[in-house]
Design a protein that fits this description.
Elements lengths: L22 E4 L3 H12 L4 E5 L13 E3 L3 H10 L3 H9 E7 L9 E6 L1 H13 L4 E5 L2 E9 L2 E9 L4 E3 L2 E4 L8 E4 L2 E4 L9 H11 L4 E7 L2 E2 L10 E3 L21 E5 L2 H9 L5 H4 L13 H7 L7 E6 L7 E4 L7 H8 L10 E3 L2 E7 L17 E3 L9 H19 L13 H12 L23 H11 L5 H23 L1 H4 L1 H4 L7 H17 L9 H12 L1 H17 L18 H10 L4 H4 L7 H18 L1
Parallel strand pairs: 1-2, 1-10, 2-6, 10-21
Antiparallel strand pairs: 3-5, 4-5, 7-8, 8-9, 11-12, 11-20, 13-20, 14-19, 15-16, 16-17, 17-18
Length: 634
């Protein structure tokens, strides 16, 4: 099958290329693109170094963006006018809101993406960004200097012998850092799509940071020819009509290509079970830890022996390409076994594999070697973002890239670092988890990771983060003024509904359990009429704003409670826990939780609150003992 070519937009004609920059970003995956895009838009002269400039922002795994938890991160990137949401809006094939049976806090927007168009348009967007230079090359080593006893980054060298200088460098190597591809018993160094792996840089990082790198693993399923599948045996995944996507502005949302679902069979499970020893994961060839929440199909069969049916999502990779992504079938089994189990799945009986599935093992740095600005503790001006920090997923990578790019610019211009708190954003939750707890498996975002998810909704993301974007000049004045106009309408609407709900019935309309499309239409009409009566312009009342008004009314009591909890956390978060503080034999703490506390040894009350299994009652108990110890010492 002929793959759709991506037009190469960068032809280097200059014998003398610029060699001095404010920010250098290594890697042009989703973390690297977002970091370079942010730094350049803030005004830094930025170099984006990539192994292959025809594969910028490619999607080697699932061609989708968003989902539950992940979609919240993309919305937060949108609040900074980042690249991922705007390119996703231009290249989606299907848009779905997941988890609609539950409240707005835990719903998640997910877009199926045309992966080739996404890469093409991302490359175009970056090429048209002022202050940004894209250069094809492979990083070899970091350059550092020592000033006043402090090691600082000063630039990089490439395998081709080039030297580029900069006071800040952002490492976003993804799975390419010392990457190894595994298919069955065969393996070779490399990255996705036949790209080289970055072996030399791995050694340089370990030397400069004085820290050993770990190994993680991820993988993909085989790709199938669309023309070889029997779609009559699949279940259609319908998409509900939507009025908005990730961006601030309203969009007309339509479905271009449908998605489907099928399932494995007992025959599938038997084939895989009989061949588990041939899997790279089970043969011992892979040492890295794989993702718990996106396991390979052989992991599913090995761990859930009682189940024969596992969902398989039949998803297009492009509107113009005869290739299908069977999500849920990630594997490192030999190609002949892949073909056998694929043909045992309903609708796949005559499926032709166009590309085999594979596992990829790669180096990462424990993220507790970083600060909350994603700067390394060992080398000033050196930032890490994406899978090198132990995360998995395009969205998690892009969220880190955004913050790393902002902070690289700020560091390059001697400005204070910018950090997002876990009480104000999912990006903040993710980074706080990584920095405080480290990782023992690839980290994936879920809404359950956010203690304050009721106030970290998709619908209120612009209210939470747009002021930061405006402060950093990352959004236009026109967009900021439209944001302020919407905020005024929302504030007026909430006051109006709360003020006269006893008389107009408006309060009841925004307090229903199932705020479905019909309920929203009725509520919008009555609210607009009421606002017109008090001369409030309603042009700024978007579908997203309506959901936000509903959430603020429906969950007002819970939101107030969460705000009080946030204030309590902020008040006590800097309380220091002494190094010799003992959790053993403390009444009220379980044996399991005591072991976790003794292992992690949190330094502050804020870090204590992050320990898995820690409850508000446990935090209060430990705070009580800390205060008692202070009184005794006094």
């Amino acid at each position: 099958m002929q793959q759709i070519p991506i037009k190469r937009l960068f032809i280097w004609r200059f014998s003398r290329m610029k060699t001095s920059f404010d920010v250098i970003v290594i890697g042009a995956g989703h973390a690297g693109c977002e970091a370079a895009y942010a730094a350049a838009r803030m005004g830094s002269e930025t170099l984006l170094l990539t192994i292959d400039s025809t594969k910028i922002a490619m999607m080697p795994c699932n061609p989708s963006i968003g989902g539950i938890g992940k979609g919240h991160i993309v919305h937060e990137i949108a609040a900074f006018d980042g690249m991922m949401p705007k390119i996703a809006s231009k290249t989606y094939l299907q848009a779905r809101m997941l988890n609609t049976s539950k409240g707005p806090a835990v719903q998640g927007l997910r877009l199926q993406i045309d992966k080739y168009e996404y890469s093409k348009k991302a490359t175009q967007e970056l090429s048209n960004t002022p202050n940004l230079t894209i250069h094809q090359g492979k990083a070899h080593s970091l350059l550092t200097i020592v000033e006043n006893g402090c090691k600082k980054i000063s630039g990089i060298t490439t395998v081709a012998g080039e030297t580029f200088s900069a006071p800040t460098v952002v490492i976003t190597t993804g799975v390419f850092l010392n990457g190894t591809i595994h298919i069955g018993t065969e393996n070779h160094p490399g990255g996705p799509y036949g790209s080289d792996s970055s072996i030399e840089l791995s050694s340089s990082l370990a030397t400069e940071l004085g820290a050993s790198l770990g190994r993680l693993k991820t993988g993909t399923p085989p790709r199938l020819l669309r023309s070889s599948l029997d779609f009559s045996k699949f279940e259609l995944q319908t998409a509900e009509p939507l009025e908005y996507l990730f961006e601030f502005d309203h969009l007309a949302v339509s479905e271009k290509v449908a998605c489907y679902q099928t399932h494995t069979t007992q025959e599938t499970c038997d084939i895989i079970a009989e061949n588990l020893s041939k899997s790279a994961m089970y043969s011992g060839n892979i040492k890295g830890v794989g993702p718990r929440y996106c396991p390979s199909i052989e992991d599913k069969i090995g761990r859930f022996k009682e189940r024969s049916e596992h969902h398989v999502f039949v998803e297009p990779e492009s509107e113009f390409c005869d290739e299908i992504y069977p999500a849920g079938l990630s594997t490192s089994l030999p190609l002949d076994v892949q073909q056998q189990y694929i043909n045992s799945i309903p609708g796949f009986e005559t499926a032709i594999i166009s590309k085999p599935g594979y596992a990829i093992e790669y180096d990462f740095l424990q993220p507790n070697n970083l600060t909350h600005s994603l700067e390394t503790k060992a080398v000033t001006g050196l930032f890490f973002a994406g899978q090198i920090n132990g995360t998995t997923g395009y969205e998690e990578a892009a969220g880190q890239g955004l913050l790393a790019g902002i902070n690289a610019h700020l560091r390059a211009h001697n400005q204070p670092a910018f950090e997002l708190d876990r009480t104000e954003s999912y990006i903040g939750v993710m980074i706080d988890d990584l920095i405080t707890l480290g990782v023992d498996e690839p980290y994936r975002m879920f809404t359950s990771r956010a203690e304050r998810r009721l106030i970290l909704r998709q619908d209120n993301v612009f209210a939470r983060l747009t002021p930061y974007a405006h402060k950093f000049n990352m959004i236009s004045q026109d967009l900021y003024e439209r944001f302020l106009a919407e905020e005024k309408v929302i504030e007026s609407a909430i006051k109006l509904i709360n003020k006269d709900h006893k008389h107009s019935g408006l309060f009841e309309l925004f307090h229903v359990y199932d705020f479905n499309a019909q309920a929203r239409t009725t509520a919008r009409e009555k609210l607009c009429a009421a606002l017109h009566e008090i001369e409030i312009e309603t042009n700024a009342l978007s579908a997203r704003a309506l959901i936000r008004i509903y959430a603020e009314i429906r969950y007002a009591g819970y939101i107030e409670k969460e705000q009080r909890e946030v204030e309590k956390v902020l008040k006590n978060k800097d309380v220091i826990i002494p190094e010799d503080f003992s959790y053993k034999a403390m009444p009220g703490l379980s044996t399991e939780l005591t072991k976790k506390l003794e292992y992690h040894r949190p330094k502050t009350l804020a870090q204590l609150d992050l320990i898995p299994g820690m409850t508000p009652a446990g935090v209060s108990l430990i705070l009580f003992h800390l205060n008692q110890n202070k009184k005794k010492a006094a």
